[in-house]
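User: Before I run my own analysis I want an independent prediction to cross-check against. Here's the chain; please return only the structure tokens and, at the end, one sentence I can use as a sanity check.
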Amino acid sequence: MQPLHAVGAAEAEVKAAWVVLGEDGAAVARIVSADGNCPNILIDGKSYPMSLRARAETIALRPTASSIADSKPSSFPFSTCEYPLPGNATRASVGSHNLPVPKTSPQRIVVIGDSGCRMKKADNAWQDCADPNAWPFAQIARVAASFNPDLVVHVGDYHYRENPCLAGGCQGSPWGYGWDTWDADLFTPAAPLFAAAPWIVARGNHEECARAGQGWFRFLDPRPYAAGRSCNDPARDGEGNSSEPYAVPLGADAQIIVFDSAKVSGSPLDPASAKDAPMLARFQAQFRRVAELAAKPGTLSLFTNHHPILGLTPKAANSVIGGNRALLSAMQADYGTAYYPPGIQVALHGHTHLFEAINFASDHPATFLSGNSGDNVDQSLPDPLPADSSPAAGVVIDQITQSNTFGFLVLDRLQEGWAFKAYRRDGTLMTTCLLNKSKINCNRTGLIK
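Assistant: Structure tokens:
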């Protein structure tokens, strides 16, 4: 494939522009180019040609699960271009788009998750994507951007419009896995947050290869684009659905460790099963890598992945279920009922469409869920919780603060430690949790169900 030639910034029509952070905090500027050319990027007054990441193409229809029926070929009519930002960059832009450059020591971090608009035939779920009350992600992005964050963390599930709308107010919405749907679910509503700060991106189950994985690798994955990990060829999904953990430093004293759990089952993994054994071995190896990353003296390590490991999910009849059994079985094999390797003090997740902040009486990392940023929220957890509720064996809950209100989470660096603040969609405060090592204390004032 011949590389596209670079053109002046003013000559290219830019459909979207953003910055993602990857391994060791390496920043990559990305744009979607409407005319197929990769423009120049201006960094601190100097112009550099952007490189082609993924060319415009329509990808043949690939097999889909029965639960995601009615799919179609994925159309990406525009090219994705990128350029690595130097660590000392202070200003960057492409055409009229100013790009946020990373801060060495972020003071404020916005956390969002599960932000797309649900259109899924198997669930008979048709969220009204045109109604900001029914799908408030654009408002959440706009309000969160007004907080002037230094960094945004998305904990996964960016894309939900899988099937053509059959009911409700979503008629006429784009659907499927191509650019038009990615633009409607993410790039247009999130534009204020993309302009406000660089993003750390965790991958959700909606971005696994059989779903929106093609767009995940074209747009968001921080590593170089590669054919084997593009999700274009179903025969190579094993490569596409697996990514090595990496750490993004938050100054000298903290880091976020990003873990890809996009393709994971909900049942414990059996080492004697021919089907389970490869996944078990993969997750064990990846958690050993997490252990290596977390073994940094004097560093607060925040672990983020999509599926809650020690979170709770509401079920019918006033009951709850615990965290992801497949991940827990892989973690327990090496770390027993501690589950996490040493050094992890906080965990950030999505997947369950609630805000949750959990402090444990047992020695387990404080856990936050920020899965309430757009998709239909789940019912609240029972309050009080049923007696002896626990996400996993050996885990004892001390305090849980939760809400099924649409909103987002903000981490503020304090003189000593961090404050975790949950906000409603309109920016009003629900609760503040103060972190002390791996423990949190949350003020429930203002919290509503």
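Sanity check: Residues 69 and 380 are 29 Å apart (CA to CA).
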